[in-house]
Amino acid sequence: MFKVNNLGVTYNNKVRALENANVELPLGKIYGIIGPNGAGKSSFIKGVLNLVKHTGEVTVDGTLIKKKQRDISYVAQRSDLDMTFPISVLQCVVLGTIPGLGLFKRPGKKEFEIAKEALEKVGMLDYKDNQIGELSGGQFQRVLIARALAQKSKLVFLDEPFVGIDVHSEEIIIKVIRDLRKEGVTIFIIHHDLSKARDYFDGLILINKTILAYGNVDDVFTEENLKLAYGSNIFVKVGENS
C-alpha cells in the first residue's frame, strides 16, 4: 500500500504549494496525477520523494519511502534537464543502474547490457552512440524512460512525460508503462490531457493545493470533482466513451 499522510510543501518564498495531502492506494497500478496549472502536482511528487522540504509522512507497505530509494525511479520534466550535457544515449541510460551497485563500484559489462536492453524496449537502441542533445523531444523522453527501466524500480514517478512529444513516442512509452504494470511495478504520472485519463490510468489523484479526490478513475473522474479542481468553466466528457 502506498500511503501519504498530511503531506505539505512550502517553498523558501513562503508559498504554500501543497497542504494536508492524504492518499492511500494499492500498489501495482498506473496512477494519473491531475489538476490545473500551479495546483501542486510536481510539488506532491517532490515531497513524496524527499526532494523538497516537507511535512508529513509517506510509506510503502508500512516502510518510510526514504528507506526505499533504490526501489524508486523519478523522471523529471524535460525542461528541468540539461540537454547540452556531453553524454551519449547509452551512458545516460547506464546511469540508471548505479543505485543497484555497491559503494564505489562502477558500471560494467552487465550494466551496459541492461542499458541496451532498456533502449531496445523503447526503440532507441540505434541511437545509443548519439549525444542526448541530438535527439528530438520524444526521443529524449524515451531515453529517460529507458533509464528508469534500467534501474529496475518497483515505483516509478514521471513528471509530464507526454508533453511536447510525437504520437509515436507517446504510444511506445504508454506500452512500456503497461508492461511494467504487468510486472507489478507501480507508476505515478503527472498528466494534463484529461481526454486520455480513462485510457491511460487505473486510478487518479486529483490535486489543487491539496488532494481533492483519489481512487479508481470512475470515482475520481466526475464532473463534480473536475469542477471542484478546475472551476465551473471546464468542459470534458466524463462518460465511458471519453
Automatic annotation (TrEMBL):
Ranges of residues in domain ABC transporter: 2-234
PROSITE patterns given in the database record: ABC_TRANSPORTER_1 (PS00211), ABC_TRANSPORTER_2 (PS50893)
Gene3D superfamilies for the chain: P-loop containing nucleotide triphosphate hydrolases (3.40.50.300)
SUPFAM superfamilies listed in its UniProt record: P-loop containing nucleoside triphosphate hydrolases (SSF52540)
Keywords: ATP-binding, Nucleotide-binding, Transport
MF-aspect GO terms: ATP binding; ATP hydrolysis activity
InterPro entries on file: AAA+_ATPase, ABC_transporter-like_ATP-bd, ABC_transporter-like_CS, Metal_Ion_Import_ABC, P-loop_NTPase
Family note: Belongs to the ABC transporter superfamily.
Identification of the protein by name: Putative ABC transporter ATP-binding protein
Species in which this protein is naturally found: Phocicoccus pinnipedialis
Taxon lineage: Bacteria, Bacillati, Bacillota, Bacilli, Bacillales
